[in-house]
Amino acid sequence: MQQQGYGPPPAGQAGYGAPPPGQAGYGAPQQPAYGVAPPNYGIQPAPVMAQPGMPGAPGAPGQMVWMQAPPPIPGCPPGMEYLTQLDQLLIQQETHFLEILTGWECKNKFRVLNSMGQQVYYALEESDICQRMCCGPGRGFIYHITDNAQQEVFRVRREFQCCTGCFCCPCDGCRYFASVEDRNGEILGHVSNLTFCCTPLFGIFDAQKNLIAEIQGPCCPCQTVCCTNDIDFNIIDKKDGSQMGKISKQWPGLLKEMFTDSDNFRVSFPIEQDVRKKALMFGAIFIIDIMLYEQKQNNQ
How far apart are CA 271 and CA 145, in angstroms? Predict the structure, then answer.
């Protein structure tokens, strides 16, 4: 389906990620861009304001702060150059007042920030309204991840699966595989549930569906729904057993937890980690959110 805002930049503008004429190359100090219009998905810019002393801020409060797009890097999928400079991402889900008032399940929207509060990406769910209302975590979806120039960077896609079976079953037929693809449709890898019985366990797979990492949830399943602290999901490399990252579901506060299903997450990883693995860890957040936290507390 053709999405507005995808494709090459308008005529007369610099190519994707290219620095303005006369500006220093990759790694040189750069000033963040301000006043960039949000993409045409209906996502509002993050309410992050420049403050004196903030890195890259001009000292004039009231202006939006965006992360400067790095120039293209050889071998790096277009748009993922941002990830080469980051060791964590903060993912903030927008609250839909229509959901609060009516219980009508809306498309999920997320703002993605760096550790300095600068906008990096947008994420918007594309899904069928009937599946959102009736199929819960089994619904099909595509999450479009776009940058501040309205260019799609990558997407997380999962097909609708009816009567797949019990989440607790470890067999392949009961797994809900989601693919993470770059903007050209090339599959970077997959994310899926593994088991759900005692400890929520998810898997990160390569493009051939070979398991490369496990995402281990809390040992007590009650923590995923009633904990008032941050909930950590450690990402363990299957090759050597080392920790290659961590996803944290952040406690949003009592009122937001009671009356909405909006969640905030943080994913951290070594800054030198391959950007494709970073994208897979980032994409895993949407699977964890939809399979564990897409419960409307106000409708239960």
Answer: 20
